[in-house]
């Protein structure tokens, strides 16, 4: 996929901005049509691709790494996602179903010694309910026809863009028509032949509003989004820092913290999201005792069962060891800005 004889700029364009595989006609087999109707009713948008596309995704990721465009730290952290391994429930996959569903930012309220503090959970973090809907909808159609279907691990942003379901923003987030970046992506695989074809499109992988816009570059609190180019320095993204344990890196400004996990700055400033921005709904509140336990940064299995359950309902139990540190950083950031 990567021809080393080409200039670096051309090789980068081959990934993010040049002529690409394109949205062909949707599959029209009766089973594919029934699946489409079921997923749509469950609020899940989708595209079908042949399972062979997984190897092309791996080659693209390998090429990015070789070019120095994918940080080694990020490559190793998500190494299990680059190589496609079918789930044991689908030993002979034929089709990959890339899906997207709405995932809005929400707020949660904590009670610190200094008073209440509200924190935003950005899009995509709360995902289990959407995953359940998508899988149940797919199984309801495919199982009666004698086929297996289950979740699989793949680089879903790249998959969704290659399949014509999404486009990249300059901030390297995936944008889905009608949802903006407020969308969660996932990949299902099935042993059903659903008539999927390799997409052959000339559309750009980058949204058309990105080349003249630099909003995300200007508001990024850590400077990880380039003014020119299409690959962010993911190792310096605030989300990368606040999702993982340890002291704050020197490159994280004290006033940059804005979300319980992740970061909202580039999404708030993006013109492609202007129709979807609204006041976040308050979905949970933790009292003084619960907040005090969260501040301790314990592993989820060491928390009281009821508190662990409440965090799991927000899909935050896996972040329990960093939530306390992040809360203190949000408190200090709010105090510094007041």
Kindly describe this structure:
The chain is an alpha+beta fold and 338 residues long. The protein folds into two domains: 8-104 and 123-190, 3-Layer(aba) Sandwich (NADH Oxidase); 215-337, no CATH class. 35% of the residues lie in helices and 14% in strands. The chain is built from 13 helices and nine strands. The chain has helices spanning 8-16, 30-41, 53-67, 72-77, 79-82, 128-142, 156-162, 215-219, 238-242, 265-269, 288-295, 305-313, 320-337; strands at 45-50, 95-102, 106-112, 115-121, 149-151, 167-168, 174-175, 183-190, 281-286. Strands 1-2-8-5 form a four-stranded antiparallel beta sheet, with helices on both faces. Strands 4-3-9 form a three-stranded mixed beta sheet. Strands 6-7 form a two-stranded antiparallel ribbon. A hairpin with a 5-residue loop joins strand 6 (167-168) and strand 7 (174-175). Helix 2 runs antiparallel to helix 6 (128-142) and helix 11 (288-295) packs across helix 13. The longest helix has 18 residues, at 320-337. The chain starts with 7 loop residues before the first helix and ends with a helix. 37% of the residues are buried. Mean pLDDT is 88; it is low at 1-24.
């Amino acid at each position: 996929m990567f021809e080393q004889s080409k200039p670096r700029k051309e090789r980068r364009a081959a990934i993010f901005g040049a002529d690409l595989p394109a949205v062909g006609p949707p599959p029209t087999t009766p089973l594919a049509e029934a699946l489409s109707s079921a997923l749509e009713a469950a609020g899940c948008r989708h595209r079908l691709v042949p399972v062979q596309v997984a190897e092309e995704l791996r080659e693209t990721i390998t090429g990015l790494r070789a070019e120095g465009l994918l940080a080694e730290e990020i490559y190793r952290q998500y190494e299990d996602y680059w190589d496609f391994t079918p789930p044991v429930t689908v030993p002979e996959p034929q089709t990959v179903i890339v899906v997207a569903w709405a995932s809005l930012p929400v707020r949660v309220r904590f009670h610190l010694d200094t008073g209440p503090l509200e924190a935003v959970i950005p899009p995509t973090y709360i995902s289990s309910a959407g995953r359940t809907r998508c899988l149940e909808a797919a199984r309801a159609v495919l199982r009666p026809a004698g086929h297996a279907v289950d979740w699989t691990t793949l680089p879903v942003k790249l998959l969704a863009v290659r399949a014509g379901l999404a486009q990249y923003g300059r901030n390297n987030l995936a944008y889905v028509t009608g949802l903006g970046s407020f969308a969660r992506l996932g990949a299902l695989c099935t042993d059903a032949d659903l008539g999927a074809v390799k997409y052959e499109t000339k559309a750009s992988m980058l949204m058309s509003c990105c080349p003249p816009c630099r909003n995300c570059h200007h508001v990024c609190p850590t400077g990880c989004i380039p003014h020119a180019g299409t690959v962010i320095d993911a190792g310096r993204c605030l989300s990368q820092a606040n999702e993982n344990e340890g002291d704050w890196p020197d490159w994280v400004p004290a006033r940059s913290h804005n979300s319980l996990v992740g970061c909202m700055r580039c999404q708030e400033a993006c013109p492609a999201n202007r129709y979807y921005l609204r006041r976040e709904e308050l979905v949970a509140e933790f009292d003084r005792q619960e907040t005090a336990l969260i501040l301790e940064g314990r592993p989820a299995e060491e928390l009281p069962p009821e508190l662990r359950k409440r965090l799991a309902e927000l899909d935050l139990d896996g972040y329990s060891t960093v939530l306390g540190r992040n809360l203190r950083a949000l408190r200090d950031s709010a105090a510094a800005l007041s």
